[in-house]
Amino acid sequence: AGTLDDVKARGKVNCGTNTGLVGFAAPDANGEWQGFDVALCRAVAAAVLGDHSAVEFVSTTGRTRFTALASGEIDLLVRNTTWTFTRDVDLKFTFVGVNYYDGQGFMVPKSLGVTSAKELDGATICIQTGTTTELNLADFFRTNNISYEPVPIETNAEGQQQYLAGACDAYTTDISGLAATRATFEDPTAHVILPEIVSKEPLGPLVRHGDDEWADVVRWTLFALIAAEEYGVTSANIDELVANPASNPEISRLLGTEGDLGPMLGLSVDWAVKAIKAGGNYGELFEKFIGQNTPIGLPRGLNAQWTDGGLLYAPPFR
Amino acid sequence: MTMMTAPPKQTFRVGMLIHDTRYRSLTIQIVVLSAAMLMAAWLINNTIQNLAVLGKPISFGFLSSAAQYDINQMLVSYTNQDTHLRAAFVGLLNTLLVAVLGCALATVLGVLIGVLRLSKNWLVARLMTAYVEIFRNVPVLLWIVFAMAILIETLPTPRDFRGEEATASMLLGDSIAITNRGVYIPEPLFSRSLGDLPLPGAVAISLDLVAILALLAGGLAASAAIRRRAERIQNATGKRPATWHLRLGVIVLPQAALLAALGFHLGYPELRGFNFQGGIHLRNSLLALWLALSFYTAAFIAEIVRAGILAIDRGQTEAAAALGLRPGRIMRLVILPQALRVIIPPLISQYLNLTKNSSLAIAVGYMDITGTLGGITLNQTGRELECVLLLMLVYLAISLIISAVMNWYNARVRLVER
Amino acid sequence: MSDPSNARDIDRSRMAVRDEVAIRIAGMNKWYGSFHVLRDIDLTVHVGERIVVCGPSGSGKSTLIRCINRLEEHQSGSIVVDGIELSSDLKNIDKVRSEVGMVFQHFNLFPHLTILENCTLAPIWVRKVPRREAVETAMHFLEKVRIPEQALKYPGQLSGGQQQRVAIARALCMRPRIMLFDEPTSALDPEMIKEVLDTMIALAEEGMTMLVVTHEMGFARQVANRVIFMDQGQIVEQNAPEAFFGNPQSDRTKLFLSQILGN
Amino acid sequence: MSDPSNARDIDRSRMAVRDEVAIRIAGMNKWYGSFHVLRDIDLTVHVGERIVVCGPSGSGKSTLIRCINRLEEHQSGSIVVDGIELSSDLKNIDKVRSEVGMVFQHFNLFPHLTILENCTLAPIWVRKVPRREAVETAMHFLEKVRIPEQALKYPGQLSGGQQQRVAIARALCMRPRIMLFDEPTSALDPEMIKEVLDTMIALAEEGMTMLVVTHEMGFARQVANRVIFMDQGQIVEQNAPEAFFGNPQSDRTKLFLSQILGN
Amino acid sequence: MPGQPFVRSHMLPERAPPATAAGPLLWLRENLFSSWFNAILTLLSLGFVWYVLAHALPWIVQSSWTANSLTECRQQIAASHGPGTSGACWAVIRERYLQLIFGFYPSRLYWRPILAFGLTLAALAPILFPALPRRLLWLSSTVPFLVPWLLWGGSLWLPVSIALGAVLGYAALRLVTPLAGSLAGVIAAGLVPVLWWLFGAGPATGLLQSALPLAIDSVQSRAFGGFMLSITIGIVAITCSLPIGILLALGRQSDLFIVKTLCVGFIEFIRGVPLITLLFVASLLLNYFLPPGTSFDIILRVIIMVTLFAAAYMAEVIRGGLAALPRGQYEAAAALGLDYWKAQRLIIMPQALKISIPGIVSTFIGVFKDTTLVSIIGLLDPLGFSNAIRADTAWNGIVWELYGFIAALFFVFCFAMSRYSMYLERKLATEHR
Ligand SMILES: Nc1ncnc2c1ncn2[C@@H]1O[C@H](COP(=O)(O)OP(=O)(O)OP(=O)(O)O)[C@@H](O)[C@H]1O
Ligand SMILES: Nc1ncnc2c1ncn2[C@@H]1O[C@H](COP(=O)(O)OP(=O)(O)OP(=O)(O)O)[C@@H](O)[C@H]1O
Ligand SMILES: [Mg+2]
Ligand SMILES: [Mg+2]
């Protein structure tokens, strides 16, 4: 049977997440997982099962995440995983979209007086292993013909600890991670993120190869969140919009008041409504977990809607 | 003396497969063997099917493709353009390095602590007991991350060495820098170096090192010859000539001459750019792993040493003393040879444990074989089956070699009994 | 209790006692912690004397003879062995120990060395005798205790009686002038006791000064020229063996003898 | 050597030997590896016979009786016990073992079980006797060996002699028709030997077929109706005890007897 | 002149030793300052103790218990102890200790793991302390079925029907042995429960459950975390590894060549590789080895691998116990007509296991400590959880307090157990056997 049927039969979505990444996935004091990646899992659960809490979170490490997905232990993996050719083709996964456009950057203490990554010749650099980061780093320094001393570390918490204690001159990971980390410093202003972005890191949810129904569900749940923001559908006004269908037919189709997109996916008519109500649209989630008003304080940047000059672009719902 | 009469011929009945002791064991073994083979066949069949479903047939081809990642510590040359196989080899050498360093330090500490635990000094004995209890009752992984945290958080950064109001300074006449990025110590350099000796497999060995080792071996042999001569003299006259200065001389003097000839000098680390440059860099990851494994294992070794010494009957010491032997001689001639027999086997199995525990290197980012082959290579290539199997084989080989040595030793020193 | 007197006649010709003093103990006291083990011991042993020490368990016999080669320290009084006063001076201790041989109840052979090596170890390392000579001496004494053919075996391969004889040979190899024995036969099976006692008798015949803690009364009668009875850390009675066994004076001695001979 | 003949008069009335054959060993050989331990053993034991086996150490006595209940396998010849031929068939082995009781030199009681449990274990698990009945039998035999009051103690709390008597009771609880004893008294202190021998004599008086390896010649004289002397894996001489001790034929027997009795 | 005859007329009383040989001064001199070398050691040790206490105590004491984030902690400490004081932020422990202990286990159900743990202790008591009444062993035999049910929840009928498997095995043993011999009996006793568990237990549970619903809330093993996870893995692994270890040890001791080779191969293989590689197998490879489509929970997989790991070590411990038994025990059992399995069950194993208890306890300590390794494959044991807590914005950057708390908990557990095993060793050494 397909994953969608399995999930419905089980009544739970098994969602692979990070073991702990500030802003994206971490358990709170009540043992509830919270974060930007986590919210996507909840939206999928809401869309499929109508209950945003019907999720089992499986914490995975860089080493175990793909096996967990391949073996069927989890139904989807939302763990700041970069969409690459080999992962998509050789490792046989399907990336269903991008929920965060990231890029690898460097953070250094202001006091170091460095303004460009190219000045980092001979520097000690902390990198989180098990990601594409170490490959990008190797490539960057090789192409610029400068040397560095890599300090591999397992988790972001350790990377931050080493960086703060001065055990490395620079810390490199995805810009989002850098910003999130910097935000928790006692004095965030004492650290700068260097302008170089050495890689493209489209982070997105992925599912197993060959289960297109399930891939569609996850893909369009993500798009529903993005489209909702584009059309101004928020968790606050969605009930009203459902009750009084607006003039925009795109919104009506998205919310299921018109057409039957949901049943085509094998879901209920109001699947998108539930997904959006689970935590809000893309913009709401962004602001809630990683946006400017959170301690992490990420700007929208590339992750703004295409209408605002960003890269977020949901295909039409029709 | 007697003719063997053949056992009476019996007709074979099926029931005898179970009831007859001669056939019974055969029956059991065949049943067990076929069950085991069935099980193995089932597992292998499942694996093949699963791999087919995933479209990932077993292949070790990835080992010869470029690794593309950097390793900060290597004992042989390596760049990110080298193969995964070479990365694994670098990792293996790093595993062996930390294992050897760890065993050495753990032994020294363990023996010291084990002996001090037997000390008549109440305070020292108590402290050592506390040491043993604290270290062996907390998981080694916790000790490793703890050690790393201590190194990082309590030591000065290179920046602290810089400028007018430096808060930290180098030790021993600016030759050693202890920083939270590791310890920098002077490195030996040769101004008239003999160059490298390339070996197959792109491994190069420094000829200087070869020369030094060869001379050292020669010196040791000469020293042994002097010792044997002293022994002969003792056997002949009963007087043992003092030879330590001679023996030291034949080892040290030629070395000194060779080093002078090679233009030996030390390369001191100095603060340049972001880091100390030059010298040998003992990285935090290595230090943390090394110290944590050594301190943890030392607690076990201390217990082994203590038990070994206690296992020797007091009567042995008394008998030796009654013969007029001095305490030092009693230790060397009577107690140690016996205690070592008791100590060495469990000691070697502690070495084995330490080597296996060194696989926890990944917790601090030390690039041992688990970190390279079982870590980044596995992640980058997605070849779990091949990587983990290779990894297990490597550890198994190391273990089997160590236990072969242990068995050989046990067989050699076993006390002769009736 | 086996009675070696039937076994062979004793040659008493060389067993004369000389006037020279081998051991002189005067007013010696010893405590273990606050437990008073040896109380005011006075004892003079002449060269050539063969003294048997007996007494109930825990009476301090072992402690007494262990004090003589300073395996135990005494706290007051004096012990002079072969003219050397035992003090905490290491040199004195060494000298005394190479003059005094000791044989233990549990043999205490070194299990990692062959019989021959057991016997040559101390001569080579303490007396600094050339190995050849040490081996010759060792073989000589091993012959004396009648096990030269075992020289290359290990202690673990020998029976208890053989091991004890090796222990005697080992002590003799240091050519001591005084031999101490602490219950040398009590860990042995009955058949083996005889062979060890025979060896000790042979030693006595050669005029060795001997202090023997033992309950082998046959041996005492035959060989000793004085029997000392200890109780509660004190010497209660001493006498020639005939007198001691025939006509014990003290009540304690009588009680002890009745127990031990009645058995 | 203690001599139980003084102890009590033996009732020989029931000790008659019947014509029935209990054990028949014919042309039996056994090797340990390439070492030929038992050579062409022929031996017939009738019901009610009491046979003492003696001989020097290493002559194969233990091996012989261990072959009889197949603790050791023989390689050629035949052993028929109580009409059952010993072969590699497990069922036969089980049958024979429950017909034959065995008492070892070192008792081999099960230290984790009480005396009573030691005695009831095999009847319950092998003979499938109800527990109540097994306990009754056990108490009966424990009374016979005169230690019923120890039934609830553990073996470690008993003296050696008591332990050996329990071992005999334990074997008897299986109601064997033949009893094998392998030096049942040689690990015991002299005082305890007597009590065990008394127990065995009592057993003999009841007409039990017994094969006893022992050097207790007093016991042999008093109880045995045949003494077998073994040397180098062969039966060298067998005879009624009076004849065996009074007039040994073989030189080896004479030598052995002189050693063992002279001691 | 030989000594004169001498008879003591009166016995000397016991006297006190001279002043230099007793009293507290003597104790000091003998134990701390008996030589200049010892005196130096004493001073060095005192210095070391002072150094450690002087640094650790203020940090431990000048702490904050009430803050809600690390920043708040720093402010509170600076406020109450002056700026620049470094102090512990125990507030994180106050906020998260339940998580560190129970993981994500639903807080209203905390009583279940607590009860399960208590039951386990109660069940162990009669095994560990022979003085307790033997009747408690009945409790011990039900607990292995009860505890998993309490932890994972679900239908009561599941543990019942699993226990039924054990009963069926026993029944098979009793039925088959008289008919077809003890070997067949043992095989049947092994086979019947396995078949029942594979094919019978599921439907039976369903049937019973529909007939009489008796169930408690079920909890996914994903919710397990913190110390509960460590203890669960440790206890389940040790309990399950015991029978496997016994079989392996018997196999290794047997003179059947193939059986022996297989057992030796298995034991040496498992002991030759680090546990972490076995955990990799659990997390990465186990799915390859099972039929396509089967996938079960990572914690179960980890428990399986840790069980195999413990079994190999257990086998060696038990082999030591077997080797310590005198041959006479085997022979006496055989001479009484007990067959191999009966002799093992009634005579050999009870003694061998008793001798092995200290070794088993040590193995357990080792396995319990090694459960921290599961954090490397992403399970949230205490160490893994500490990382997750550090990923919380409020506590990002906290280190020592968490490590200290975890280390202290492990220490308390392991120390208690190692004391127990020492007590046992002493007892076994003095006990008459
Ligand atoms: N190292 C020691 N520490 C404390 N007390 C001791 C020590 N050695 C012996 N004792 C005690 O001193 C007393 C005398 O012991 P000693 O061994 O000299 O007796 P013994 O006469 O040789 O007895 P036995 O015939 O049992 O060997 C005993 O009460 C003993 O318990
Ligand atoms: N398991 C064995 N393997 C090899 N040789 C053995 C074994 N058991 C006994 N032997 C040898 O077989 C010979 C006969 O042994 P057995 O125990 O039967 O002698 P015994 O007459 O009972 O001697 P003892 O009076 O010492 O008990 C001895 O030489 C012994 O060394
Ligand atoms: Mg004594
Ligand atoms: Mg025998």
UniProtKB/TrEMBL annotation, chain B:
<feature type="transmembrane region" description="Helical">
    <location>
        <begin position="288"/>
        <end position="312"/>
    </location>
</feature>
<dbReference type="InterPro" id="IPR035906">
    <property type="entry name" value="MetI-like_sf"/>
</dbReference>
<dbReference type="Pfam" id="PF00528">
    <property type="entry name" value="BPD_transp_1"/>
</dbReference>
<feature type="transmembrane region" description="Helical">
    <location>
        <begin position="134"/>
        <end position="152"/>
    </location>
</feature>
<keyword id="KW-0029">Amino-acid transport</keyword>
<comment type="similarity">
    <text>Belongs to the binding-protein-dependent transport system permease family. HisMQ subfamily.</text>
</comment>
<keyword id="KW-0813">Transport</keyword>
<dbReference type="GO" id="GO:0006865">
    <property type="term" value="P:amino acid transport"/>
</dbReference>
<dbReference type="InterPro" id="IPR043429">
    <property type="entry name" value="ArtM/GltK/GlnP/TcyL/YhdX-like"/>
</dbReference>
<feature type="transmembrane region" description="Helical">
    <location>
        <begin position="87"/>
        <end position="113"/>
    </location>
</feature>
<feature type="transmembrane region" description="Helical">
    <location>
        <begin position="26"/>
        <end position="44"/>
    </location>
</feature>
<feature type="transmembrane region" description="Helical">
    <location>
        <begin position="358"/>
        <end position="376"/>
    </location>
</feature>
<keyword id="KW-0812">Transmembrane</keyword>
<feature type="transmembrane region" description="Helical">
    <location>
        <begin position="246"/>
        <end position="268"/>
    </location>
</feature>
<keyword id="KW-1133">Transmembrane helix</keyword>
Automatic annotation (TrEMBL), chains C, D:
<keyword id="KW-0067">ATP-binding</keyword>
<protein>
    <submittedName>
        <fullName>ATP-binding cassette domain-containing protein</fullName>
    </submittedName>
</protein>
<feature type="domain" description="ABC transporter">
    <location>
        <begin position="23"/>
        <end position="257"/>
    </location>
</feature>
<dbReference type="GO" id="GO:0016887">
    <property type="term" value="F:ATP hydrolysis activity"/>
</dbReference>
<comment type="similarity">
    <text>Belongs to the ABC transporter superfamily.</text>
</comment>
<keyword id="KW-0813">Transport</keyword>
<keyword id="KW-0547">Nucleotide-binding</keyword>
<dbReference type="GO" id="GO:0005524">
    <property type="term" value="F:ATP binding"/>
</dbReference>
<dbReference type="InterPro" id="IPR027417">
    <property type="entry name" value="P-loop_NTPase"/>
</dbReference>
<dbReference type="InterPro" id="IPR003439">
    <property type="entry name" value="ABC_transporter-like_ATP-bd"/>
</dbReference>
<dbReference type="InterPro" id="IPR003593">
    <property type="entry name" value="AAA+_ATPase"/>
</dbReference>
<dbReference type="InterPro" id="IPR050086">
    <property type="entry name" value="MetN_ABC_transporter-like"/>
</dbReference>
<dbReference type="InterPro" id="IPR017871">
    <property type="entry name" value="ABC_transporter-like_CS"/>
</dbReference>
<dbReference type="Pfam" id="PF00005">
    <property type="entry name" value="ABC_tran"/>
</dbReference>
<dbReference type="GO" id="GO:0015424">
    <property type="term" value="F:ABC-type amino acid transporter activity"/>
</dbReference>
From TrEMBL, chain E:
<comment type="similarity">
    <text>Belongs to the binding-protein-dependent transport system permease family. HisMQ subfamily.</text>
</comment>
<feature type="transmembrane region" description="Helical">
    <location>
        <begin position="33"/>
        <end position="53"/>
    </location>
</feature>
<feature type="transmembrane region" description="Helical">
    <location>
        <begin position="149"/>
        <end position="172"/>
    </location>
</feature>
<keyword id="KW-0813">Transport</keyword>
<feature type="transmembrane region" description="Helical">
    <location>
        <begin position="262"/>
        <end position="286"/>
    </location>
</feature>
<dbReference type="InterPro" id="IPR035906">
    <property type="entry name" value="MetI-like_sf"/>
</dbReference>
<dbReference type="InterPro" id="IPR010065">
    <property type="entry name" value="AA_ABC_transptr_permease_3TM"/>
</dbReference>
<protein>
    <submittedName>
        <fullName>ABC transporter permease subunit</fullName>
    </submittedName>
</protein>
<keyword id="KW-1003">Cell membrane</keyword>
<feature type="transmembrane region" description="Helical">
    <location>
        <begin position="179"/>
        <end position="199"/>
    </location>
</feature>
<dbReference type="Pfam" id="PF00528">
    <property type="entry name" value="BPD_transp_1"/>
</dbReference>
<keyword id="KW-0472">Membrane</keyword>
<feature type="transmembrane region" description="Helical">
    <location>
        <begin position="227"/>
        <end position="250"/>
    </location>
</feature>
<keyword id="KW-0812">Transmembrane</keyword>
<feature type="transmembrane region" description="Helical">
    <location>
        <begin position="109"/>
        <end position="129"/>
    </location>
</feature>
